[in-house]
Amino acid sequence: MDLNHIIESYRDEIIRSTQELVAIPSVEGEPQPGKPFGEDVYRALDYVLTLGRRLGFETKNVDGYAGHIEFGQGEKMLGILTHLDVVPEGSGWTYPPYGGEIHDGRIYGRGAIDDKGPTIAVLYAMKAVMQSGIPVNKKVRLILGTDEESGWEDLKYYFKREAVPDFGMSPDGRYPIINAEKGILHIALCKKFSSGQKSSIGIEKIYGGQRPNVVPDECICVFGPGVDREKLIKDIENLKSKSGYTIEVELGDRDTVIVKSIGQLAHASMPEKGKNAIGQMLLCLSALGLGYSEMERFIAFLSEAIGMQVDGQSMGLALEDQLSGKLTLNLGMIQVDSQVGRAVIDIRYPVSFEEQEILARIHMVADMHGVEVEVLDHQGPLYVPEDHFLVQTLKKVYAEQTGQPAYTVAIGGGTYARAIKNAVAFGAVFPGKPEMAHQRNEYIEIEDLMMNAKIYAHAIAELVK
């Protein structure tokens, strides 16, 4: 039977399964026994494994860190790596972020495109290949991660206990084929402040951002008691009219003034698509006139070295290559009070550069201001040559199923493809479609969901026949 007809026969199941999975708010939570990333992340993992068993596959839960669903036989293994955790939903949604509601042919909800819809598409693609009776001479394993949006502790744990696939793909990027992914470096810029110093303009604390890999949409600065509230509010209003910054001011308890910077969420791999609320706050505070306390000097350093920049130019990081393009930088989190300042940065660097070269450039700037640099996480770049059999096969499948030209692209995003050798990102966002991952009102179009399932079914069949 034709694979596409089989997939169409699953249409209602694919839609319903995607809705049910999106309805689970699988943001990382407090660890519990057997549930290392919290109750809701475990619920998502259990849901998909249960669905896999119901569809006739062998499944395994690896201590709540990850799981897999598989069929086929042979010495070689095709791995398809997806994830079930999501970033926090943020604010300002038109539809409930965990409603899985359908509007205008789209399933809305956090994780709909990143990466729950594609996970369901792969699962039913596997079912279609198995039902079709196409001869399979390799194992096909869908690996379900649960910590992709944070530290990848899931796959680190999983691959210490389970076989590593010989080659694979991850449906967590864009079509046609992503064969190059930039290196990802998360660092913290930190400085401890001497006791007894006070901000000359009354800053008590600053906080904002949810994760390094998300462009922050909110940053708060609290001005303490004793600040000239009328002057402060007037100065901010004048600054807003001149700069176009989106700033809100309200009176807090204890005679404090709360200043809120409003930005636009986006994925850190494309920071230019968002509006960084932390950077906007730093520039606003600098424009108000910072003093010379250690806290204010730290704020001024961040404002001058980063501000609203997304290319790292003032940090000496304006780098690029032909394979993967320009370096990007996102100031994702900040925490400043009278004792310490800490800013967390996400850097995506071109594939031809090395981690140590990036760090050396950062140290040159940070050391001059007495700011410490702490490496939080690093993932090396990914590159699979275009003449590799995997790339050539997926190009063929994509062109045949869509009627569109197939080509390779490079991204700043970090997919699970880099977790194994000989792997690429393949879908699930089609050319010309907006990138909704990590954004409010995230969705997947139902017809795109179905086309993904068809493409993945043909890809699996071609790669394992």
UniProtKB/TrEMBL annotation:
GO terms for biological process: L-arginine biosynthetic process; proteolysis. The keyword Aminoacyl-tRNA synthetase does not apply. Pfam families: Peptidase_M20 (PF01546). Keywords: Dipeptidase, Hydrolase, Metal-binding, Metalloprotease, Protease, Zinc. InterPro entries: ArgE/DapE_CS, Bact_exopeptidase_dim_dom, M20A_pepV-rel, Peptidase_M20, Peptidase_M20A. Its cofactor is Zn(2+). SUPFAM superfamilies: Bacterial exopeptidase dimerisation domain (SSF55031), Zn-dependent exopeptidases (SSF53187). One of its GO terms (molecular function) is dipeptidase activity. The keyword Metal-binding applies. Belongs to the peptidase M20A family. This is Succinyl-diaminopimelate desuccinylase. It comes from Caldicoprobacter faecalis.
